[in-house]
Design a protein that fits this description.
The structure holds 2 protein chains of 2 kinds. By secondary structure, chain A is of the alpha/beta class. Chain A contains 10 helices and 8 strands. In chain A, strand 1 (about 5-10), helix 1 and strand 2 form a beta-alpha-beta unit. The radius of gyration of chain A is 16 Å and the shape is globular. The mean pLDDT of chain B is about 95. The chains are: A alpha/beta, B alpha/beta.
Chain lengths: ~250, ~250
């Protein structure tokens, strides 16, 4: 089973995307052999968390075997986080670089909702690996890890600049890493060394990033053993997000 | 034919890149030839890296081509002289220049390729028919081609760098307005639609495949081209046809 642990759907103001909506999303997944994707709404990231989260939740209800919704939450927006519970998210996502909050102050109430829901939390350093878009340093995300107990935390959008800070958190058994922004030579073996494949999730960043790039770094990586490759490509995400194999 | 027009060898800050590593990965990906520059000559010495690369080219004459790397035009007449010398001595097929406007931290503009001191290097390369791989912003590339209109500038990373603020749209638009600018596809940015936009605006004949290996993961960089929504003819040009034409590799390939 191939699981894309970091996919996006919705419009995007920074450049023209070849594919945007729900049908495009499913077509792109089919074209690349991706069985299941965890989807985050770009509308939720950029302007309106409530309606964006509701949209991806509706998509997931229409395609329960293919799509899993990730709810965007924002520091200081506890009421939004509370309402996000209604969308029954598979995970939540905190993206302080892009969500208009300017940081992580007043995040405790929001985190309380996530802990109460018991779903994994994505902590986003960057949405895509583009040097022009905002980044939130992993080192500055680290305090959140201390506040969620043993709730699984997925570091998202980590690139070479942030990898050392991410690896510093790898000693905590509840910290995972998704791979969509790791483009450096031998990044996968180094990620396995730091996190082990039990805590690595393949992410492509589709529909914002080119899906094939996210896939080949895992599926074509000769320096990974087959077990590690299988876990990163889907096994770890299956376990973490309780995704069943639709093929049995 | 697949030609990787952007590779490196050498050592920098703990990263050691042997030419064997580059060629092994080229083999694994079905890349027929690579064009390489030496990190020592990009960042340190006009001669040390270029000489080492030249000797490596002699050991792999069928598939390892070279850029003469010039760390700065501020080295004076030695810089254009090195271009002529290494092109003649080793048959290097291009020149590599590199802007470091944010290095060291705190300096706004330590070394930009867009300065008068670099023009003799660009002029010499152009007189010798050598394209220039410029790790530079779109603005810097436009600055150079405005002053040396016959120069052929291959814009490294096509805007997908920190110094260019990731603005590949600006890079493509700059190339559209300057016929001497080509776009190198090597970048850690894998934004959906990036390669397709470049092809639609400047045409596939000015987009050239590069990987930046062994700094970036080469399989990802190749997938940017093989996975792009472009025609087979466009793909063939980007992956090798353009590099063969631009760098005169026909015989070597």
């Amino acid at each position: 089973v191939i699981v894309d642990g970091n996919a996006y759907v919705g419009d995007w103001p920074y450049w023209r995307l070849p594919a945007v909506g729900e049908d495009d999303l499913l077509r792109t997944m089919d074209a690349h052999g991706i069985d299941v994707a965890l989807i985050t709404s770009t509308k939720a990231l950029l302007v309106d968390a409530l309606s964006g989260n509701a949209e991806v939740s509706a998509m997931a209800r229409r395609h329960p075997d293919r799509l899993r919704p990730v709810a965007v939450i924002r520091a200081g927006a506890a009421a939004e986080a509370a309402q996000s519970r209604d969308t029954e998210p598979t995970a939540c996502r905190l993206t302080p670089a892009l969500d208009g909050t300017g940081g992580l102050s007043r995040v405790d109430d929001v985190l309380a909702h996530v802990v109460d829901m018991g779903v994994p939390l994505f902590l986003t350093a960057r949405v895509v690996m583009n040097w022009g878009l905002p980044r939130y340093p992993v080192a500055d995300l680290a305090p959140v890890v201390d506040r969620v107990g043993d709730l699984p935390v997925v570091l998202s959008g980590v690139n070479r600049v942030d990898f050392a800070a991410a690896a510093d958190l790898a000693g905590r058994p509840n910290v995972y890493l998704e791979t969509s922004c790791l483009q450096e030579f031998d990044a996968m073996p180094r990620a396995v060394q730091a996190f082990t494949s039990d805590r690595l999730l393949m992410g492509t960043g589709l529909l914002l990033q080119q899906a094939s790039c996210g896939l080949v770094k895992v599926t074509d990586c000769d320096s990974l053993d087959p077990t590690d490759r299988e876990r990163i490509a889907g096994g770890t995400a299956q376990r973490l997000f309780r995704i069943e194999d639709r093929n049995g | 034919v697949i030609v990787d027009a952007h590779t490196h060898m050498g050592v920098r800050h703990g990263w050691r890149h042997e030419v064997r590593t580059v060629l092994d990965h080229a083999d694994a990906l079905g890349v027929d030839a690579v064009i390489c520059s030496h990190l020592a000559s990009i960042f340190y010495s006009l001669d040390e890296g270029n000489r080492e690369l030249g000797e490596a080219m002699r050991r792999h004459p069928d598939r390892l081509h070279g850029y003469v790397a010039v760390p700065s035009g501020r080295l004076g007449p030695a810089a254009p002289a090195a271009v002529a010398h290494y092109a003649e001595r080793y048959g290097m097929v291009g020149v590599k220049i590199y802007s470091t406007p944010r290095v060291p931290a705190g300096a706004d503009r330590l070394l930009s390729v867009a300065e008068p001191a670099m023009l003799p290097v660009v002029e010499t390369a152009t007189e010798l028919g050598l394209p220039i791989l410029a790790h530079a912003t779109p603005h810097e590339c436009a600055w150079l081609t405005a002053r040396v209109p016959e120069a052929r500038i291959l814009m490294a990373h096509m805007g997908g760098t920190a110094i260019a603020h990731g603005d590949w749209t600006a890079a493509v638009d700059t190339a559209h307005d300057a016929q001497g600018i080509y776009l190198d596809t090597a970048t850690s940015t894998v934004d959906a639609g990036m390669v397709e936009y470049a092809v639609s605006i400047v045409g596939a004949h000015r987009v050239i495949y590069g990987s930046d290996m062994p700094l970036l993961e080469p399989s990802v960089q190749l997938a940017r081209i093989t996975g792009a929504d472009i025609t087979a003819e466009e793909r063939a040009l980007i992956l090798g046809g353009n590099a063969v034409r631009l760098f005169g590799l026909a015989d070597a390939s």
